[in-house]
Q: What sequence folds into this?
């Protein structure tokens, strides 16, 4: 059985490297802007990640949802905090985002399972 967390991260890393090797100034600046936007500022990193998660659900970007879920998990956000944010995203986005909500739950469950395997394994 494939590991959706590892598969996602391997693909993301591979393709980001491929994209950046072309050394396109605009793309590199967008990647840099994206990275820097989520650093500590007037809002803390956890809040920014939850905002990114909500926007990603509403925009129906599963890759973005996965990225923000993993960062939320690494930042120590609880399932309750994440689910409450997902509920706001679903309210704002409407029923069309429910398939993305399903994928978000699946990925969060995989993150928790992976963390518990690391802890106990």
A:
């Amino acid at each position: 059985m494939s590991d959706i967390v590892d598969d996602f991260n391997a693909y993301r890393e591979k393709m980001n490297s491929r994209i950046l090797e072309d050394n396109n100034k605009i793309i590199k600046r967008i990647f840099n802007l994206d990275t820097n936007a989520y650093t500590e500022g007037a809002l803390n990193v956890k809040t920014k990640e939850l905002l990114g998660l909500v926007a990603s659900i509403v925009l129906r970007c599963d890759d973005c949802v996965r990225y923000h879920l993993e960062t939320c998990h690494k930042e120590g956000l609880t399932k309750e905090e994440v689910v409450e944010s997902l509920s706001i995203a679903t309210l704002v986005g409407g029923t069309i985002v429910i398939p993305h909500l399903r994928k978000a739950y699946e990925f969060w469950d995989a993150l928790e399972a992976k963390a518990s395997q690391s802890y106990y394994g």
User: Anything to note?
Assistant: The helical segments are 4-21, 25-37, 45-59, 62-74, 79-93, 98-120. The radius of gyration is 15 Å. The chain is about 80% helix and 0% strand.
